[in-house]
């Protein structure tokens, strides 16, 4: 085939068949530019290929964000590091880089309610997706329910295998899962299956000593904690609740604002 034999009108169809949507969208515009600026053919091709790859990356990240079910708006950009001095930003940024996901490392955030555990784990999850990893966020009790239903339907193995595709599963509020709700041990099976293989991040309102209620018996609790902490980073997040602190700061600000200023009147509607 010579170059003259190629019918340019078939190009859009060929690019669609090859699944190259960015080529399809941009080739005419870039070809005009290449012709008018006298680009070598290789440059023209490289520019289009670059667009195609960048667009493909964006689509992948969008797909992975969708499947992750992360709580909206809880990102590193909206996390106030000054509010939690025990968790310095460089430490979180190192976690967000994702090296700990190799060989299935774990991350466990323990602390009282309202200190930002859900927020920081979601934010790390978000950053990991942007770095190319796959993440799934769930409240622990929701996942336990799902896995129990799968066990009843005799498809637990398939349900666990489906979760293998995620490099990280974020189990939020693990201490809200109760053994009376989980008369079976699906949560333990998930933890045992992922041990040294795929990562788990956990948010817990209680220290390990309070985890007895989660698993059917003491031996299983010890075995689960043992596996989880073997290769784990533990974030101790005990502090005053961020919500309470925000409410106190608000009250103080209002007390310090003279009642007659127009500013105070404007703020009234916002409360
Ligand atoms: P926890 O999971 O520890 O109970 P959350 O992550 O749900 O706490 O935090 C409670 C609320 O406060 C959320 O709306 C969260 O976004 C916000 N929050 C907590 N800590 C911070 C922080 N350091 N910076 C910004 N918002 C925060
Ligand atoms: Mg939470």
Automatic annotation (TrEMBL):
<feature type="region of interest" description="Disordered">
    <location>
        <begin position="246"/>
        <end position="271"/>
    </location>
</feature>
<dbReference type="InterPro" id="IPR027417">
    <property type="entry name" value="P-loop_NTPase"/>
</dbReference>
<dbReference type="Pfam" id="PF01695">
    <property type="entry name" value="IstB_IS21"/>
</dbReference>
<comment type="similarity">
    <text>Belongs to the IS21/IS1162 putative ATP-binding protein family.</text>
</comment>
<keyword id="KW-0067">ATP-binding</keyword>
<dbReference type="InterPro" id="IPR020591">
    <property type="entry name" value="Chromosome_initiator_DnaA-like"/>
</dbReference>
<feature type="compositionally biased region" description="Polar residues">
    <location>
        <begin position="258"/>
        <end position="271"/>
    </location>
</feature>
<feature type="domain" description="AAA+ ATPase">
    <location>
        <begin position="103"/>
        <end position="235"/>
    </location>
</feature>
<dbReference type="InterPro" id="IPR047661">
    <property type="entry name" value="IstB"/>
</dbReference>
<dbReference type="InterPro" id="IPR002611">
    <property type="entry name" value="IstB_ATP-bd"/>
</dbReference>
<dbReference type="InterPro" id="IPR028350">
    <property type="entry name" value="DNAC/IstB-like"/>
</dbReference>
<protein>
    <submittedName>
        <fullName>IS21-like element helper ATPase IstB</fullName>
    </submittedName>
</protein>
<keyword id="KW-0547">Nucleotide-binding</keyword>
<dbReference type="InterPro" id="IPR003593">
    <property type="entry name" value="AAA+_ATPase"/>
</dbReference>
């Amino acid at each position: 085939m010579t170059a003259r034999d190629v019918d340019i009108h078939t190009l859009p169809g060929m690019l669609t068949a090859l699944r190259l949507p960015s080529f399809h969208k941009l080739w005419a515009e870039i070809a005009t530019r290449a012709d008018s600026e006298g680009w070598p053919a290789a440059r023209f091709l490289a520019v289009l290929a670059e667009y195609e790859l960048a667009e493909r990356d964006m689509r992948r990240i969008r797909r992975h964000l969708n499947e992750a079910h992360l709580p909206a708006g809880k990102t590193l950009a909206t996390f106030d590091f000054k509010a939690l001095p025990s968790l310095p930003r460089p430490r979180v940024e190192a976690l967000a880089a994702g090296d700990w996901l190799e060989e299935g490392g774990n991350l466990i955030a323990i602390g009282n309610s309202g200190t930002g555990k859900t927020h920081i784990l979601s934010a790390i999850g978000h950053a990991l997706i942007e770095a190319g990893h796959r993440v799934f966020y769930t409240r622990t009790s929701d996942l336990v329910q799902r896995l129990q239903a799968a066990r009843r339907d005799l498809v637990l193995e398939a349900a666990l295998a489906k979760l293998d595709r995620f490099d990280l599963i974020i189990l939020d509020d693990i201490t809200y899962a109760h053994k009376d709700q989980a008369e079976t041990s699906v949560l333990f099976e998930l933890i045992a299956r992922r041990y040294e293989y795929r990562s788990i991040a956990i948010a817990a309102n209680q220290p390990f000593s309070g985890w007895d209620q989660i698993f059917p018996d003491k031996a299983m609790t010890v075995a689960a904690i043992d596996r989880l902490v073997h290769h784990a980073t533990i974030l101790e997040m005990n502090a005053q609740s961020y919500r309470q602190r925000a409410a106190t700061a608000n009250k103080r600000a209002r007390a310090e604002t003279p009642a007659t200023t127009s500013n105070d009147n404007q703020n009234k509607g916002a409360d």
